[in-house]
Amino acid sequence: ELPQNWEVRHSRTYSKDYYFNTLTKESRWDPPPMGENERIRASHLLIKHKDSRRPSSWKEMLTPHLFSLSLPQEKILRTKEEALEILKRHQKRIETGETTLSAAATTESDCSSARRGGDLGHFERGQMQKPFEDAAFALEVGQLSEPVFTDSGVHLILRTA
Ligand SMILES: N=C(N)NCCC[C@H](NC(=O)[C@@H]1CCC/C1=C/[C@H](COP(=O)(O)O)NC=O)C(N)=O
Fold it and tell me: Please, is 88 exposed, middle or buried when counting C-beta atoms within 10 Å of its C-beta (0-12, 13-18, 19+)?
């Protein structure tokens, strides 16, 4: 059995079989391992903090700062610890069924995916920051992660496919 999009082909030049990926057009002599280019789908709720790689978000722009200069992208000032506390409150509300990850992400996530209920679409290994990828690929479909830290901030991840 081969991962999705891979098939066995025969090389007449070398008179031996090889493996061809009909999607990426890649060819290999050795069979690709199962689960290597597995694609999953996930949504997330991201709470950023002052040390995030991009410490600003659509939400900060909408928060009316009466007396501060309305800079194009307000800087997020909360600490990483404060971000974790905020995320843990959302985690509890989702785990108790009081809300859903999608509803919480829509209003609370600092990622632009908030407008899609946190949906990041399908992705393979190699696309997301490693801590996020490892956590997402370890989830069963329908399972919610514990808080995950990346350079973006602190995430809750729900694997959806
Ligand atoms: N394929 C899809 N849908 N988009 C490309 C994702 C690129 C990827 N992004 C991430 O790893 C962060 C952590 C997990 C989700 C994610 C979302 C970030 C978080 O916000 P930011 O730190 O960028 O301001 N917003 C968008 O990229 C990366 N390699 O940087």
Answer: middle
